[in-house]
UniProtKB/TrEMBL annotation:
EC number: 4.2.1.136, 5.1.99.6
GO biological process, one term: nicotinamide nucleotide metabolic process
Lineage of the species this protein comes from: Bacteria, Bacillati, Actinomycetota, Actinomycetes, Pseudonocardiales
Domain annotation YjeF C-terminal: ranges: 205-464
Bound cofactor: record note: Binds 1 potassium ion per subunit.
Protein name: Bifunctional NAD(P)H-hydrate repair enzyme
One GO molecular-function entry: ADP-dependent NAD(P)H-hydrate dehydratase activity
Length: 467
């Protein structure tokens, strides 16, 4: 079993909330939620005393008004803008007014804004009236449940949206909390736990990745840990071979075989790799990585067929994906039981399976089902979908990995984890997390080439294993 941080879609959350609400006094969930918001607000205020509420038409606004009520009782000056006065949560508004909360047309100068514009019912970006109030905010924003304007289930931002310093959410995390920037995310328990079955998606945290990372035991030798095969690079693109092979070498101990036209370059940089010019005499491996810099000609197609026929787990990237998109018959070479991990970026995905669209999780799921493969859709948020419906997501803390060649490193990492016999969904998820951590550690705030990201792999493994 993979322990991880689960995320539940809005439909599942609502169903669970209904079951809890049926057995607790009316309004008690909202007050618990609001109390959590007020507690976080006091912390963010750090002694300052002016809070502004943006209150929408539904229960998210109700949470904000009740939070305003609790803040007033702690002596905080609270004013509220009602975006839809006639629909504002009646009890919340009455309670807020009772303790001296003021309703105003504009927030004016405040120390903290509580965003109660819209929560789980959000559809699309902020509407113009709400966007107008959000556009000129100077104070930090505490979002109730989620930053308004971001889609709760997809994390898509398609227009004006709130940018939150912190988000306080209730009962469980929702996809938006992993797929989009919500600031620091805090979870308030409202008793949903027993009503929630397994999550729709999950995030691996650093300690989990560290715990899954393969470590040699006393009985291991270079073969027992799994041999990674790399079929990448060409006379034109030898660098891709050097990066992918290096990543496989640094990811696990054991052994890496390289087969292809960049053998001399790989040998020169990585003397420990076993290099050969042709895949036909590469020797036995427990996984293949194929595609980076490989080219898309007839000899590259032959390489792709060979790895698909090999009967070991395969990670296919870059040119391998393009070849499969151009010539789907190449899939016939695959033994139906062979696990395949595809690692497209958005343009490669389009070639393979059409538009990615705003729902990246759905896109990864579609392709995973279509190809019966694990699909790792790259980007700032990386989505890993398995053919069995499991989904892992990883949001990078920065974007320094957006540099040429960093994908080659990722494919080498995945190949090594596959050779070590990690479950392919987990292999892709752990590799994506480690890759993002390596990028941040290598960068330290400055641009880095992919070779620096690669060099930071051991440091990142150490950090995750000690986390
Ligand atoms: N159901 C429950 O048990 C609980 C719900 N809680 C709160 O209730 C929220 C859900 O409340 P509701 O279902 O009433 O709906 P919301 O408060 O999320 O949405 C209210 C209204 O906002 C408007 N809206 C939708 N999209 C918009 C956009 N893009 N820009 C501006 N306005 C938009 C719509 O008119 C919508 O009906 C949760 O997010 C949470 O904050 C909490 O009180 C905890 C308990
Ligand atoms: N904006 C971003 N923020 C964080 N990581 C990113 C971003 N854009 C791309 N990445 C990561 O960088 C890598 C780029 O891979 P890819 O596009 O295949 O590059 P290349 O083909 O040049 O190696 C992927 O791991 C991807 O997830
Ligand atoms: K909100």
């Amino acid at each position: 079993m993979i322990p991880m941080r689960g995320l539940w879609t809005t439909a599942r959350v609502r169903a669970a909330e209904e079951r809890v609400m049926a057995r607790v006094p009316a309004g008690s969930l909202m007050r618990r939620a609001a109390f959590g918001v007020a507690t976080a607000a006091l912390e963010l205020l750090g002694g300052k005393r002016r809070v502004g509420l943006l209150v929408g038409a539904g229960n998210n606004g109700g949470d904000a008004l009740w939070a305003g009520y609790y803040l007033r009782r702690r002596g905080v000056a609270v004013r509220a803008v009602l975006l839809a006065p006639e629909k504002a949560h009646a009890e919340g508004l009455a309670a807020f007014r009772r303790v001296g909360g003021r309703v105003v047309d504009r927030l004016g100068e405040v120390d903290l804004v509580v965003d109660g514009i819209v929560g789980l019912s959000a559809r699309g970006p902020l509407r113009p009236d709400a966007a107008e109030h959000v556009a000129h905010l100077d104070a930090p924003v505490l979002a109730v449940d989620l930053p308004s304007g971001i889609d709760p289930d997809t994390g898509a931002i398609t227009g004006p949206a709130v940018r939150a310093a912190m988000t306080v959410t209730f009962g469980c995390l929702k996809p938006v909390h992993a797929l989009a920037d919500c600031g620091e995310v805090r979870l308030v328990d409202i008793g949903l736990g027993p009503e929630l079955a397994g999550p729709d998606l999950a995030e691996l945290d650093d300690a989990e990745v560290g715990a899954h990372w393969p470590v040699p035991g006393p009985q291991d030798d270079k073969y027992t840990q799994g041999v990674t095969g790399v079929a990448a690079g060409s006379a034109t693109y030898p660098g891709a071979a050097v990066l992918a092979t290096g990543a496989a070498l640094l990811a696990t101990s054991g052994m890496v075989r390289y087969a292809g036209a960049a053998a001399d370059g790989v040998r020169a940089r990585w003397p420990e790799a076993i290099c050969t010019g042709s895949i036909t005499d590469a020797g036995r491996v427990q996984s293949w990585v194929a595609g980076p810099g490989l080219g898309t000609g007839l000899s590259a197609e032959a390489v792709l067929r060979t790895v698909l026929e090999a009967g070991v787990p395969v990670c296919l990237d870059a040119d391998a994906i393009t070849m499969l998109a151009n010539n789907p018959d190449l899939w016939d070479a695959r033994d139906p039981d062979t696990p395949v991990v595809l690692t497209p970026h958005d343009r490669e995905y389009e070639r393979l399976a059409g538009e990615v669209g705003h729902d990246r999780v759905a896109a990864a799921r579609r392709a995973a089902e279509k190809f019966r493969a694990v699909v790792l859709l790259k980007g700032h948020v990386t989505v890993v979908a398995g053919p069995d419906g499991r989904v892992l997501v990883n949001r990078a803390s920065g974007s320094w990995a957006a540099t040429a060649g960093s994908g080659d490193v990722l494919s080498g990492l995945i190949g090594a984890l596959l050779a070590a016999r990690l479950d392919p969904v987990l292999a892709a998820g752990c590799a994506a997390r480690l890759h993002a951590v390596a990028a941040e550690r290598a960068s330290g705030g400055a641009p880095i080439p992919a070779s620096a990201l690669l060099a930071a792999v051991p440091d990142a493994i150490r950090a995750l294993r000690s986390g």
